[in-house]
User: What shape does this take?
Amino acid sequence: MKFLSSVLICLCAAFPANSEEILKWDFSEPEWKGNEIRDLVSGTVGKCQAGPVFEDGELVFSDKRFIDVPDISGENLPTDALTVSARAAIRKGEKWGNIVGYLQDNGSYERGWSLGYDGSNFVFWISNGGPRIVVNSKRPIRLDEWTDLTATFDGEKIRLYVNGALSGQRAAPGKIAYPEQAEFTIGAYRDDDEFFPMEGKLLAVVISDSAMSEVEIREAAGLPVPLEFSIRPSLQFLSTSSAVINWAVTGESESRVLFGKTEKLEQSTSGKRLDSGESSALLENLEPQQVYFYRMVHGSGKAAKESSVYEFNTALNFSPPFQSSEVDPTEERGFAVVLGADWKPIERLLKETASAIVVFESDAEKTNLLRKKLYGKGLHGSRVTVFQVEDFANLPITSCMADQVVCDSWRDEFSISEVKRILVPGRGRTYFFDNAGKKTPDDFVRPETKDSGSWSHQYGTAGNSTTSGEALSGSTSTDDLKVQWFGRPGADFGLDRQSRMPAPLAVNGRLFHQGMDRLVAMNSANGTVLWSVEIPEFQRLNMPRDASNWCADEDHLFVAVHERAWVFDAETGERKAAIKTTGEMENRNWGYIARDGDRLIGSTIKKASSYTGYWTSKMWFDGKAGSHGTAPVCSDSLFAYDSETLSPVWNYKKGVVLNPTISISDSRIYFVESRNEIAKSSLTSQISAPELWKDQFLVALDLKDGTKLWERPIDTEDGTVTFYMQATPEAILITASNTAYHFAAFDPADGKPLWKRSNPWPADHHSGHIQHPVIVDGMIYLQPNGYDLKSGKITTKNVGERSGCHTYVGARDALIYRGAGRRVAMWNRETEAVSTWDRLRPSCWLSFIPANGMLLVPEGGGGCSCGGWMETSIGFAPLKLLQQGGEK
Amino acid sequence: MRIVSAMLLLASLTGRAGDWPTFGHDNRRSHVTDESLTFPLNNSWAYKSAVLPQTAWTGPARWDAYAKNEGLQSMRNFDPAFFVTSVGDAVFFGSSADHAVHSLDANNGNENWVSFADGAVRLPPTWAGGRLYFGADDGFARCLDAKSGDEIWKFRPIENAKLIPSNGKLMSPFPVRTGVLVDGGSAFFGASLFPWDKSYLCAIDAKTGAKHFVNEQTGVTLQGIFLASTERLYAPQGRSVPLIFAKSSGSKLGDVPGTGGVYCILTEDEQFIAIPNNQKSSENTVKLASPDSREAILNIPGANRMIAAGQYLYFHQKGKLKAIDRAVASAAQSKMTAAQKKMTALKKAKAPAKLFEPFQKAEAAARLELKAADLWSSFQPVPSALILAGDHLILGGDGVVFAVDKNTGEQIWKADLSGRVYGLAVANGRLFASTDRGHIFCFSEATGSVR
Assistant: This one.
């Protein structure tokens, strides 16, 4: 037995009473008198009516045995702070498992607390008067293995430690609310309605009326002091067999990374301190298709500090298969087309890029010779593919997919129009290689796709319109679009479909997509993975009640990672900066994030306030008012950085700002805040207090300098299910959902009300009650209706019928959504005709986006284990776009 | 019950009795050969690709968090390794890494020839009558001379389908990922991918490459090796149910309900074995189903590989390799299912407890009969490949290949190797093991230096 908490060490010794300990049991055989056992602090009697059973002197719970402690009631138990420790060995998981607790869990009446388990993990929950607040251990139960569990509540959070290591935490503000009547029970989940006995062994239980700190718990378990990061760790694959981990801590000390294929972390590599002050470690000789675990350690001996154990999976290593460790991972990736089987341009591309090379040659003999040469060098197929073609004016590849087209020298048989056809619009380049080096003829450029849009924020624009202005070349039907590319990332990349993750982004020909604590950047036109990064614990979920954790501009990707915003070079994945929240708010995480003009905008939220739980159907976040996951995340300040210099520009702090309302349009930032003191005093930024809906103001600030342009007190319907805001030059639209949808439109010039109206939900499940409206061309769309944005008048009642959770997104001429038969569907805005793709499954919130001239569908549906889904990422290109280049 | 003549099926394929001319040995993909090996074997050579197999699909989602299902199954992993076929002293394989079909000298691993395609080759070529047949991601099925590698014909059902990017490669939107099944003078394959697009079921004259039929299909995705009985073709679809087509016309006859995945086997009497039957459970269930009655004959939970040889089934279940009598087990399962159906009906009708009794007894008796079907079991590592060669079951797992006596379950030979073994083949005194590292190991009685 490796780990012992201090209290349990005490138990194994002389059991001295501690002033904070209020109950303490040692369940070993000598402590029992018949069916009774006394606690060692107060002498309170516990009874096992069926008679205790022992194995080697250790108490065994089986055959419905449990211990009842009738003299303990809610009045004897702590309300402000609590530590519960137990050493247990669970023999069988149970949906409702309790090791020790005092509880009632009857429908919506949930009171008390429980330290227990479910079918797979350990669980601690308390009630602060509302629904249970639950934290699950990250580490699953290891059956029949002695485990030290410690659960704490400090008035702000609940935390669960397994063998001394923090294994889960959750915001839980307030006091513990106890039921009027319950039975203090050890070894069974027991209340008025339930009885689920435990199967397993129990050695000891200790309850204190204060919350032990993480340092105390780790120290007691013999674990080093936890490492605190100033910049959290991230991992990037460098090649098919290597990866680099970067992180930063305050102060200087020697560092190393322990890693391995099991949590024993059999291997070690030294950390290197970079000029930036960050630490970096290289992991080499990684095996393919393998899960690895790792942790960072600073210092040595008793002064050592160590991080939690994180993991990565080399199956998610998207490095090109041919890439060797000598290749610079930031080298250009994509598709390079070579006209003619000449070796010189191929050789240059091999040396200077990490692109896949496609060669076209009309001569059979040359084709064959080149294939053999490449095969001899181990390059055929994986790096270079050679096609024999009859006609260079009709190459056998789709349009708009080549990042480069090169040739040694121009031949008459080559076709300029065909080269233009295959080039990625706006991005692809042509090079001749000749004795003078390379040059780029101006003629050889395919222009940007007309009327293409950028999906730079959660709902397309920073104004939250759920559109990007993307025209899809006029596409209105699924028949108007054709698969342009497909492949990685697949289902193994993601967290699951249900948790309402942040939407993908697509700007300047690049597509960005989030998975489970990881993100990937891709070429929108051909699906090439440009770079990817693994960031432990950066997940943010339940977008209908929060703001996204990322946004993008033409050259950068901005990602909120706990305390900081990371700024990535969008093309290479190099992290350019990791800037902290600014202003007077201390100890905060970065909440909202947006880019507009020359500003990077952020907000502060209290730590551990983002939704991060994803396990069980509760984390579908599909509930109605009062259900788990309906409390909006609110910011306690807003601020702006200069996007060029990354220096702070302004701060705003007044009330609590509802994150789903923050919207930017015409160089102004709009939001709704509550200035109610109770709402402001919430200990978490997930605010469920009904006072949030009081004392609300609609506020407009100048984005440039933060000057308040106007504010107006508002009293809309309470958004107890969802509360969205969208900003356009014509109107600011609030959509509150409680038992129906309620629109309220305001004038952007001064905040004066324009109109309001309500409409019933089309359904109260599968997102029928939490849909985010789409605003296109002065029209609002929210199933089943279309409305005029300026007047609120209904313009159509025939919006394509949704079937499934994904919210509608808008292209210029069509809405795209999950429709009949759970198929991804398009609704023609003009004819109102519906068309579908079979067996394409999106996520349960927003995972397909019209942008960059295409409809981009990165994999989001994985995890749905029923149905014959495609489980793959797909880029659809408009047929008109492909044919514009003369595709035959 | 439809009886298939195994001999008839094999006649069109096999040059010699000891060959392994197509994926899974024959068109039923039985993974059974009469060829015997004499143990111990030595690793006489190994082919090692510098690039790993580039699989068509990624792994499955880590879990279904909503339903709390962990360990989801991959249902489209038809190309995890370079599977081999072998005839005489030649061994053949296709490569998803270098887009080629290779012929090696089975004696020493030296390359006889290599023939390039314009896309990944995901399944091994089928040998028939001195020719090789294979499909590729470029949308073509090809026929080569087995001795020289020279192309004899190639065929694709749709012209001018532009190649599209996929995972850093180019491929047709209508790739051939079914292998090419040769039977009765025809070469059968599917060109298919997106369910919302068209798919093509093709039968081509194996000799000339002339079209027998090309049937356009909609709403399907044909992927994974085709199987055939005397009259029918079986086409796996990954996460959807396998489809059944008439071999003579290509018309769709139906599907095999309750099954799925790409590990599929037809028994001699045309029962259909499929793994996994769905993605949901972390515990594989091997399903033995009747395409005619559309009912499950046997469900074996916790199993991950199975083969059928005559009246016996061999499979690995919960740590043990097992042999059972298929007829006895099927009959017992049938009785048990009948009793359970009756009890379900009684329960629905809220019938009194005493009416349940005869069926409870019948179910209990059937359970005993099912147990009586067990022949032997032995603790063995979890296999990712399983074949029967003569009197020996041969299993491949993570870093290991081993042989077990088919009559006792006793392990008689074992060899360590690098990678997980997904493909096994026995031909002419040699054992070939293909791993997820892109390695092919040849074991034989001969000693040799490993290349």
In short: Residues 225-316 of chain A form a domain with the Immunoglobulin-like fold (CATH 2.60.40.10).
